Amino acid sequence: MGANTAMNRRTLLTAATGLTAAAWAAPTALGTAVAAPAAPAGRTAPAAPAASGTSGAARAAKVRAADWTALGKGLKGGLIRPGDADYATARQLYNTRFDTQRPAGVAYVAGTQDIAACLSFARRFSIPVSIRNGGHSYAGWSGGDGRMVLDVSRMKTIRTPTSSSAVIGAGAKLIDVYTGLAAHGVTIPAGSCPTVGVSGLTLGGGHGVLSRAYGLTCDSLTGATLVTADGKTVECDAKHNADLFWALRGAGNGNFGVVTELRFRTRRVGDGVTGYVSWPWAKAADVIRAWQEWGPTQPDEIWSACDLAVTPGRTPRIAVAAFSLGTKGGLANALDKLAAKVGGGKASISVRSRSYLDSMRRYAGCADLTLPQSHLPGRTPGRDKAGRLGRETYAARSDFYDRSLNAAGIRTLLDQTERFGRRGGGGGGSIQLTALGGAVNRVKPLDTAFVHRRSRFLAQYLTSWGTAASGGPQVAWLDGLHAAMRRHASGAAYQNYADAGLKDWRRAYYGDASDRLTKLKRQYDPQRVFSFPQAL
Question: Structure pTM?
Fold first, then answer.
């Protein structure tokens, strides 16, 4: 199960620290916002959402050690259990909020035989299963207490059998996908966070800087191989098991089986153009008013996001980041028109041409890192002594917007942002409004299980804090912001930003596809081997 951001969380939270516009436009991998001080006495940390009930842990505890040992000996990839030397690292997810999780075992599956053996074991002992690649599940559902975690990260091969296709192992990370495909002059539309797994991102939709030009990541998916709950290996595409192929494109995360391989249509890509425009906070209302009409209506080649960022005690910041497959002059002219629509005051505009791979490395916060450094060490937030990327501590929620915000909606968004700036404590808060339209919206809502095809933009609300802080005030702000914007939003939410606080999550994630997906779940996983709080 995975998640993605259109721009890396580090980009947003680096902006919140008040760095220069140039640093925001081409961010370095600084980890999260400045570490927050400890919370005032009497405030406690918000409990991380539970990935499973106590029953799963109780069932796992009853399994004999000899049975676990026998399972591990039969796996090519290996099994790590509590008490093993590597368990402390093996159980970690990307978000440090979930560091208290204690899975019953972490199986590093190396292929379909390993997966089938693990699923047989799970069915035999009624142990709940979680699927993990990058471990970025916003709700922590790629891990959990007493669960068997099937980690697919060792299945990471990247092949290009033709000039317009790629076959990618489910365990590949985005930084490796971009790098591997760039060697052949091609890519797929996807996100930017370097350690997000391609499988989790694709199966929930997947958006990024090429989405308006080429659609979501799942729109480039042409087929997949997966192991279903009964241990069978299944191939699916538009002609074979087409119902399952439909479901995987938007609702595939942890619901129907363990995906082992993904097949994509690739796109030729050369240079790109990055753009950045910032304004004084006093112009924030005008910026949002203008951008929300400008961003979703640009030519397909131009992607953009309007970013609001704030830290306590500081004036919030607002900017628009853009990417284009067109010319430098074309993007510069488009941004000039946006600045003219905002009116008044002087906008600071920066436009640069780069190779597509270089642009993605910068968005990912990896511009100054080697490829090995761009992978997680899996231990501490920030960078380690070798300069490698670390993990983050954050919480997030999301809304899709089918129409532009009116004056009241804009004022609510700005009031909530300013409220974070007035509160005490540390951490950072950010809001990213990502333009949709283009190729994303030319797909009919029910042609895939990703149904959000009529939305103009997607909002991600995010807050982060240092590991020494409780996170209580930051999460309270996040929940208040989400509640305040509810009456202005469509009611839909992005399934890759899994939100444990959503009550009507079926409708929010899957809309009119919900009933069909529920029937397919009964067909492919009748015993609910793949189960978590928001499983179909």
Answer: 0.90
Contact 527, 231 (CB under 8 A): no
Backbone angles phi, psi at 266, to 5 degrees: -100, 165
Q: Please say if the pLDDT value at position 15 is more than 60.
A: no
User: Residue 386 burial by CB count (10 A; 0-12/13-18/19+): exposed, middle or buried?
Assistant: exposed
Over the stretch 42-62, which tens digit does the pLDDT of each residue have? 333 344 444 444 566 777 778
* Residue in this structure with the two tokens 């929620």, named with its chain if needed: 397
The set of residues, in sequence order, having a beta carbon less than 8 Å from that of 19 and lying 6+ positions away, is none
The owner of tokens 């075992």 is 105
Give every CB contact of residue 386 below 8 A, 6+ residues apart in sequence: 373, 377
Angle of CA points 482, 483, 486, to nearest 5°: 85
Cβ contact 208:199 at 8 Å: no
CB 429 within 8 A of CB 16: yes
Please report, to the nearest 10 degrees, the dihedral formed by the alpha carbons of residues 409, 412, 413, 415 taken in order: 160
Q: What is the pLDDT of residue 386?
A: 58
CB 441 within 8 A of CB 330: no
- Residue type present at position 323: F
Cβ partners under 8 Å of residue 134, min gap 6: 2, 94, 153, 173, 195, 196, 197, 200
pLDDT digits (tens, 9 = 90+) for 310-327: 998 899 999 999 999 999
Residue among 114, 131, 124 nearest 51 (CA): 131
In this structure, the number of other CB atoms found within 10 A of the CB of residue 62 comes to: 9
Longest pairwise C-alpha distance within the chain: 73
